[in-house]
Amino acid sequence: MRYPAFCTLLLTLAVSAAPVSAQETFASLITENTALFVHVDVKKMDINAIKQSWTKYTEELLQSLRFDETSTRSTLSALNKDLDGWDEVIRPTFETITQTLGIQEAALIIDTDYDSERFPVIIAFPWKGKTENDGQTLASLLEKNWKIDIKEYADAGFVVPLGDFLFLVAEGGEPLLQWFDDLKPSESDIMQAMKTLGDDEIKMVLSMTDKLRKRILEEFAETPYFPEPLLNIFTYVARKVDWAAMSIPNPLMAEKQPPYTMTVKTSTAADARQLRAMLNTGIDTLIASWQASMAMWRTWDNNVPEMPQTFYEFSRGYLRTMLPVVEGDKLVFHQPETDPFVELYVKMGSVAFLFPAIEMIRSELARPNTACMNNMRQIGIALHNYHDVYNGLPPLYTVDASGKPLHSWRVLILPFLEQTALYEAIRLDEPWDSEHNKQFHNRIIPQYVCPRNVSAGDKNCHYSVIAGSGFIPAKNERERTGLGIGNITDGTSNTLAVVEVKEAFCWMDPTADITLGELMKGINTEDGRVGSNHRGGTNVIFFDAASFFLTDDIPKEVLRALGTPNGGESESRDWRRNR
Fold it and tell me: Is-above-0.85 flag for pTM?
């Protein structure tokens, strides 16, 4: 299945649109439970103008980066070749869709009645009066230009013609048919908000339906680590906002980044004034949290520079320029016509959108993944804080009177990861997979998830200790400590504490951690468990809470030395000294 490719086609049409009105085409699909409606006009596109804009954006970006004349010329030459190749695919596709098939608009819908748990996206195209030949034309176009087998999609229920529309859905078949049969169109907040918008290429409205409101409040109730003022803003928005609407001109065909306006409708004028005041206070909280995070980061990594206070004050002032204007029961956000920051981001983003390779390069330049390393540092600090309280590291797992594993070390350090409420909800005298404790298997602990690795359901942890390396099973369920830091005679800076594993496992599983033997199979090897989706290696953390990136080619004798707490090997000291 190549579902993302079809979404790319829709997005290409979306950003290449020209203004018309008539989102009324999709009025029959909008109900009181529609949470998001995005209308895209695709009637007219000037491909030549878009190519010229991208060339101009790129040239200005190169000049701002002070590229020399030779580098600028070669980069623009390569860009023009890529644009010509893009033209060969997009132009016939667009002409067939808009002229031959007569499709001039599209809609993206999220309806909370379709699936109240996941809120999947529904993409709809007008298909009234279309014949079997039209379907074959679309199928031939997609197969030829986009390598998409539309029959495969249709058989799986991902592409479905119903009534006057052709639907593209993430979850087809019965859910879509049931949703369509139960549709009860209404003059909802969506349609009322749409009437306030102009005729720009992209118009979107978010409606705070009862189910969406409930879902947001439930989600934020489970994030106690969020700064309270910011948490209050999100919960206030969920309770008091009725809808938000925005009309967006096409940024790719404009000489400069066009302005936009977003309107947020609250329940009363008093609610609008209160929310504006909370946003103003929230800026101070955000800047303070940012400064605190940078200070903590510097305690982990001495190479992180200390930003001057001027930088934070400038950021605070810039954010305040974005504060909305109160107009009765509405908040109106204006993006200035000449905003150099937004203009630069749009230019860079436009180039990245056209050429995914640029995004891939940007991602690789950030390797090793900062978020993953930050997670591991937090785990390392939690282990040290646990040691300070209990005078020892946590055991690999606790056991009952018969020696059966009960709970992993990951459960025991929860209070030191700001997860005290979850820790207290778990029954530590029952096994990790008891009926009561099973309810927590799907819970996401942010510090246990690598953003680069794949996880789903109860397979939601990517970090393992090395069984036996400072961690030993408890003698009974009341034991809360393993070895102490003093038992690591090789030195905390020379002994691995936590490593990444390639395949995720349940964070509560007490038997999922790797052994020294698994570590010695190597990094990202076919038969080994240690590894990651970070190109060329994996992240690890040592017992001194310092994180490093181990490359795939690290010798196995070095891995053995790093994985033992008291082996006396010189390889571990040599490796750390040479980093």
Answer: no
